[in-house]
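Components:
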Amino acid sequence: MPQGVLASYKQFLPINEDTPIFTLGEGQTPLIKSRNIVKTIGCEELYFKFEGCNPTGSFKDRGMVVAVAKAVEKGIEAIACASTGNTSASAAAYGAYLGLKTTIIVPQGNVATGKLAQAIAYGAHIAMIKGNFDSALNIARELADKHPIELVNSLNPNRIEGQKTAAFEIVDEIGKAPELLYIPVGNAGNISAYWKGFKEYFELGFSTNFPELHGYQAEGASPLVTGKVFENPETVATAIRIGNPASWDNAITARDESGGLIDSVTDEEIISTYQLLAASEGVFCEPASASSLAGLIKEKKNGTDFQNKIIVCVVTGNGLKDPENAIKISPASYGEYQNDYQSVEKVLIN
Ligand code: AN7
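Structure:
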């Protein structure tokens, strides 16, 4: 298969002969088979679709490559987005590759260190606002309305087009759609994209079934669960600290058409799952990404029987994005030793 989302999935994307084809290596991420947590869940097979392996460390790259290609096709020289961090890292990378001016608007104090480091390194123009993601998105939309700038948030339909390819990869690898798919939900673009992908693959005859989609928000930022906008969303999972999701209606459609649900998990559940996924499966993700598995574990604790089910948890971003939360894991299993062989050996062998 050719490399990258544009070349690999040309026939499924809004690509024509004027669309530039390029890649930073996005897509074709691993579908990791659970060895340990699968036993607790009691299902037939459990997989983690590890989107942290994308070039900037999150699923955003799949959609960004399409959004940027379409902007360049139109002759646009500048892109902008609001972001909790990952969208901005991705926009900055593809903007740099294509020589575009990239402006990102982010909530001051609520972007994980690694994401900010990426935007700085890629050379984006960074506007930090004293407000949350929802305000940043309003500003970004106005900028794009008034200037020849392409908005590359997931309101841009080309983002959704690119992100739907993850659903194709899951079906191709398992040989059918899983019975259940768990996914973190913030601005709700990705759950909408997966549903579009599963539906299109079905309609084209590449699969014969659909998954139920189970979306999980953080309790302190769960407007799709309560049905009300959160004016002051708050969660340790800063990636999904969003109070008024842009793709609200599409997420509800995805939930209802798939026969699934959108629920929330607490910060405690998110952090304990984040630790569990790294320490018992070798999959180090950022906190927001653990909300999918945290939701599955919550349903198991509430008594759901998963026997005979094939389940996929989407793990949206890389753990290296947010080193501060990893370092807070306690008890940390390290100590300080004398600078000689014997003292280290003595402690490790006892
Ligand atoms: C790791 O980067 O909204 O429901 O501005 O970074 O499609 O918003 C990030 C969202 C899940 C939620 N996991 O996806 C942004 C941004 C991670 C994320 C989500 C995000 P959507």
